[in-house]
Each structure stands twice: as structure tokens, then as C-alpha cells.
Specification:
14 helices, binds pyridoxal-5'-phosphate, binds iron/sulfur cluster
Length: 346
């Protein structure tokens, strides 16, 4: 008896810190790959890719969650997921046609962190950071440091939302709003639930794709239990992003009544073929997600190498329309500063 107790004591005494449980999304967020050398090592790529990444990574650092990296093919520098996150020398080549604020976000700022461009909906920059750094991101130069942080800082934006009765929908964006903790998100959404003229709560997020464990019970309660109809717009560009864990997380959102949509960006070397786009649409529909927008690349400085030739997007959509049911064909759109909606290209 005495002996077995002391043995038990010996067994339970921790010898090193326990690994975080797999469902701990915030640990996954912190533990993301941030070094080009580590990324190349994990993917068995020559170190020269990491050396060439250094300059671009200094301007916009590499961030790639490990579960996303695990979906990449080893030894393949042109893997469509890797291309979205690996900094390249080309990003530092000046392009006189590209700008820092290609979509006119700064003039549309109504209150700190609140962008109001389109009738009936306003977009709140709810969080200053993302779980992944997409090299083509149109907000890669956004002055997040000037955007509000924390409950007090949202007050002017919330006041503007409360006093504008034309608004039916608030879009939480960022950065990625789901990098906020469940309690912080709960406080913000709690305030929005009480605004009588709002009908819908939309979230623009890449987290269910890149860290699917982010879809916790707490998040489902916060998003789906209130008065406002939840709309979750995820962002996947290639079918390989949609692994089984992602399917499970999206299924939970769908079962709780969220309308699920996807936006993708047309990216050279990632999804610029009819086959890739058709497979993305098919897989999204399998998972209960409607392909909503395919965005033309915004001409943001550092992303010009992702641009596709003029007319290709329109051609690809025409091909998809011949192959897929209408609901599986996304709208190909561009964002033009000063326009009252996204501009439909095809
Ligand atoms: C894209 C965008 C929206 C959403 O537009 P929808 O066409 O409703 O998806 C809303 N506000 C801003 C500032 C946007 O950039
Ligand atoms: S998740 Fe969205 S906002 Fe964040 S870097 Fe990617 S494209 Fe940009």
C-alpha cells in the first residue's frame, strides 16, 4: 500500500511542463511558425528559400500556424498553401502601380476602427492581428497601431453604430476578429446584440481555416445564441486548405445556424486554373459553405507577383459556369475606392 502510493506520487510528479491540449487554439496561435528557416526545415526545402525570404519578412513577418503548414506538401516550393505564406524576394521589387491603401480604407473611416463604405453595413476593425500572414493581403500596410484596442477603445465606433439607424449589419473584421478571446468577443458582441436596428452580425475570418480548433463551444455560444443572425465569411483559396478538422469546425457553425460563405482571392500560382477553382468550390459546398466572392487582387505594394493577366478571372468564371451549379460559382469582384459596392467583373 505504502509502496504503491509512493509509486503513484512518483508517476504524477511533472518532470516538464505539460504540452497544451490540442484544443488550445491560443497556444496554436502563439506557437505558429515565424521563422523562414524553420518553415523550410519542416517542409524539407533548401535553406536558400529561407535566406531569400529575409528581406520581405523584415517588412511583413512570416506567420503560419502549424496545422496549416501540415497541409503543405513536403519538398514542393510551389505548393499552393506555401505560396500564400512564404516571403519572397520579389515582394521588395518596387511597383509604381501598387499602393499602400489600394481600396481606400483610410478615407472611409467613420470613427476609429469603423469603416463605412456601403449602405446598411459597417465594418469594424475588431482586432489588430491575424493568425496567418497572407503575402497578398490588401491590409498588409494598414496602420493597425492606430486602430482601437480593447473595450474602452471601441466606444466611439459603438456610439456611431448605435446612432446610425441605417445600419442593419456590422461586420467584424481586422486583422482577424477571432484572434480575440471568447470573453473579449463576448463583450463586443453583447453590445451589438443590444442595438435595436441591427439584424445581422457578420464575421470575416480565416481562423476556422488556419486554426480550426478556434471554433470552441464558447465561440459558438457567443456568435450563434443571440438575436442577430450570424453570418461567417471564411477565407480559403485552395481545396487543400479544407482538411477534415476544418470540415468538423465548419459543420459545428452550420449546425448552430450560421450562414457560411467563402471569399477567395485570385492568385497566380495558387488558384489561377479552372480545375483548382472548381475543386475549391466543390469542396466548399461539401462543407456547407457557399462560394461568395472571388476577389481580383488589390494592387497593394509587395503583392504584384500574385497578379494574373487581364481577362483571366473573367475567363475562369465563364469556365466554372459551364461546369458547376450556379450556387457554386463565386462572383468575381474588384474593390474600387469610392464605389457604392464591390464591382462585379464576372
Ligand atoms: C467588402 C466590404 C464590405 C462587405 O461588402 P459585401 O458586398 O456586403 O460583402 C463592407 N464594408 C467594407 C468597408 C468592405 O470593404
Ligand atoms: S487573414 Fe485576412 S487580413 Fe489577415 S493577413 Fe490574411 S488576408 Fe490579410
Amino acid at each position: 500500500m505504502t509502496q504503491s502510493l509512493s509509486q503513484a506520487a512518483r508517476v504524477v510528479r511533472p518532470t516538464r511542463p505539460a504540452r497544451p491540449p490540442r484544443s488550445d487554439w491560443s497556444a496554436e496561435l502563439r506557437d505558429a511558425v515565424r521563422s523562414p528557416h524553420e518553415l523550410c526545415r519542416l517542409l524539407e526545402l533548401p535553406a536558400e528559400y529561407a535566406e531569400k525570404a529575409a528581406g520581405a519578412a523584415a517588412a511583413f513577418p512570416l506567420v503560419a500556424p502549424r496545422s496549416f503548414v501540415a497541409r503543405m506538401k513536403k519538398g514542393d516550393p510551389s505548393d499552393p498553401l506555401l505560396r500564400q505564406v512564404l516571403p519572397l524576394e520579389k515582394e521588395t521589387t518596387p511597383d509604381p502601380t501598387a499602393t499602400l491603401d489600394p481600396v481606400g480604407d483610410l478615407p472611409a473611416t467613420q470613427a476609429p476602427g469603423l469603416l463605412h463604405k456601403y449602405a446598411g453595413r459597417a465594418l469594424l476593425i475588431a482586432a489588430p492581428s491575424c493568425a496567418v500572414h497572407c503575402r497578398y493581403c490588401f491590409r498588409r500596410h494598414f496602420p493597425y497601431d492606430a486602430a482601437p484596442r480593447g473595450a474602452e477603445a471601441w466606444r466611439p465606433a459603438l456610439d456611431a453604430i448605435r446612432s446610425d439607424r441605417s445600419l442593419a449589419e456590422v461586420i467584424l473584421s481586422g486583422g482577424d476578429p477571432l484572434t480575440l478571446t471568447d470573453p473579449a468577443l463576448g463583450r463586443l458582441i453583447g453590445e451589438l446584440q443590444q442595438v435595436p436596428h441591427l439584424r445581422r452580425l457578420r464575421v470575416h475570418t480565416r481562423l476556422p481555416i488556419v486554426i480550426p480548433s478556434r471554433v470552441t463551444h464558447g465561440l459558438l455560444d457567443t456568435l450563434c445564441d443571440g438575436r442577430l443572425k450570424p453570418v461567417v465569411v471564411v477565407h480559403a483559396n485552395h481545396a487543400n486548405e479544407l482538411c477534415d478538422e476544418v470540415a468538423t469546425s465548419l459543420g459545428k457553425l452550420a449546425r448552430r445556424g450560421a450562414l457560411l460563405l467563402n471569399q477567395a482571392v485570385l492568385l497566380r500560382g495558387v488558384n489561377d486554373h479552372a480545375h483548382a477553382l472548381a475543386e475549391l468550390s466543390e469542396r466548399l459546398v461539401d462543407l456547407g459553405v457557399t462560394p461568395y466572392y472571388l476577389h481580383r487582387l488589390d494592387r497593394v505594394a509587395g503583392a504584384s507577383h500574385f497578379a494574373t493577366p487581364p481577362g483571366l478571372g473573367e475567363e475562369l468564371i465563364a469556365t466554372l459556369r459551364k461546369r458547376l451549379p450556379g450556387y457554386a460559382v463565386p462572383r468575381y469582384v474588384a474593390e474600387q475606392p469610392g464605389e457604392p459596392s464591390k464591382t462585379l467583373l464576372a
